[in-house]
Amino acid sequence: xxxxxxxxxxxxxxxxxxxxxxxxxxxxxxxxxxxxxxxxxxxxxxxxxxxxxxxxxxxxxxxxxxxxxxxxxxxxxxxxxxxxxxxxxxxxxxxxxxxxxxxxxxx
Length: 107
Prior knowledge:
4 strands, alpha+beta, 3 helices
């Protein structure tokens, strides 16, 4: 079993934890609740992601302050995978942003 490595950034006197775990030879799973990230990335993209993580955390905080209403719905595991693949194919890193834009006619 591959061990997860836990780190933390301090942003505006708040510790923001994130975890890195090797998913495959080519990918690493990154989880950072403060940035709303919980997905795999290519290993070659990890350094850029980590450099941009403070900006992603700040953007997520701002986003949460302005967009605080929640819409939830259930899907099958197969549909969830297809939605995630479609979001990635369209260049989205957030399924929520993809579904929001799609629902509002922005895509």
